[in-house]
Amino acid sequence: MIEDKNQSRTSLSELGEFGLINHLTQNFKVQNSSTIKGVGDDAAVIENKENQILVTTDLLIEGVHFDLSYMPLKHLGYKAVVVNLSDVYAMNGNATQITVSIAVSNRFPLEALEELYDGIYTACKTYNIDLVGGDTSTSTKGLLISITAIGEVKKEDVVYRNTAKPNDLLVVTGDIGAAYLGLQVLEREKRVFEVNPNSQPDLTNYSYLIERQLKPEARKDIVKLLSELGVKPTSMIDISDGLSSEILHICTQSKVGCNLYEEKIPLDQQVISTCEEFDLNSTTIALSGGEDYELLFTISQEDFLKIKGNPHLTVIGHMTDESVGANLVTRAGQQIKLTAQGWNALKND
Ligand code: ADP
Ligand code: MG
Question: Is the C-beta atom of 134 inside 6 A of ligand 1?
């Protein structure tokens, strides 16, 4: 939309609140038949025939959840939508609408918000979502974005966190740990840049890590895949805070234990090589990193043959009786208690 955000700077006060909302939302086209009324009235109207409605919200604050010095606004808009959709998919549902609320200080020109909405718009197109409303306010400092996603799921398809059973298999999608390492690389480059503004970083060895941090995707495809395979998970959660913490959520809420096998954890080659370079333990990164937005779920053993060999799905362990607790079984065969020391939203407090 905007090639160079420094080329023109239109002050937000020139448009006024209504002019701004209109400007940012005028190009959104409704894609879902359930969207009866989108932006423009006192409330959006959504049609629902027989399905259950899913609602989830995330709040992102500049300086706490994102750093604009290495996060382009377009990517921020995209990611802010994706992290919400991930929660809808983690319920085994389909996301259909979002609302977007922003509070923005007047240090941001209109062009910056255009970039943010360009990212939001791109995510909406990619995932077939309608932007149906929001709220706009000024902030005294920084940028704040709150997105609510709305989705639907057939009553018999919804999957909760608290329904895993002993002996179920524990399955993860994709690979994990890359987004956290991407953040470490970006933060390192930021420190280098602060010392030497002329430095030209060569990030080719980290391209996958950085993409996972700046442009994560939500696993809508997995909801479809599971349905095609005829597998309904017995429990499911998305990985936003690190594998360890998500496993513990399933265990605590389902009142089960778990054995997670270190050797089974799927890692990308860049995660392995960058961990070596940074002198980090890749298992620790996978367990405690975060922001992978992969899905973690349990299935009954009967369903194993249906998922066996699927390149998107890795069995990493199995659930046990609650009394066994949640454990990591190391490559050496040692059992270690899993702890939720992971990355979490309060780490800056
Ligand atoms: P109200 O005063 O009734 O809350 P607003 O003037 O805030 O209405 O909003 C007018 C319309 O624009 C509503 O449909 C609202 O949902 C939508 N809207 C407001 N802010 C945003 C935004 N940041 N992004 C998308 N839609 C927005
Ligand atoms: Mg309002």
Answer: yes
Q: Give the distance (Å) from ligand 2 centre to CA of residue 114.
A: 19
Q: Is 9 exposed, middle or buried (0-12, 13-18, 19+ CB in 10 A)?
A: exposed
Distances (CA, A) of 195 to 48, 187, 201: 56, 13, 13
Query: Closest-lying ligand to the alpha carbon of 147?
Result: 1
Ligand nearest to the CA of 98: 1
User: Two tokens at 137?
Assistant: 């306010």
Beta-carbon count within 10 A of 164 CB: 28
Q: Each residue of 59-69: pLDDT tens digit?
A: 999 999 999 99
Kindly give the distance from the C-alpha atom of residue 134 to the centroid of ligand 2, in angstroms, as a whole number: 7
| Closest Cα to atom 17 of ligand 1 | 133
DSSP code for 324: G
Q: Taking a C-beta distance cutoff of 8 angstroms, is the pair 99, 134 a contact?
A: yes
Tens digit of pLDDT for each residue in 180-208? 999 999 999 999 888 888 888 889 999 99
CB of 285 within 8 A of CB of 338? no
**Is 19 a pocket residue for ligand 1 (Cβ < 6 Å)?**
no
Average pLDDT, integer, range 15-23: 89
Q: Which residues line ion ligand 2, judged by CB < 5 Å? A: 135
Hey, whose CA ends up nearest to atom 7 of ligand 1? 135
What are the pLDDT digits (tens) for 128-185? 999 999 999 999 999 999 999 999 999 999 999 999 999 999 999 999 999 999 999 9
Secondary structure in 3-state letters for 64-106: CCECCCCCCHHHHHHHHHHHHHHHHHCCCCEEEEEEEEEEECC
Q: What is the pLDDT of residues 87-143, one digit of tens each?
A: 999 999 999 999 999 999 988 999 999 999 999 999 999 999 999 999 999 999 999
Q: State the pLDDT at residue 202.
A: 85
DSSP string, 249-265: HHHHHHT-EEEEEGGG-
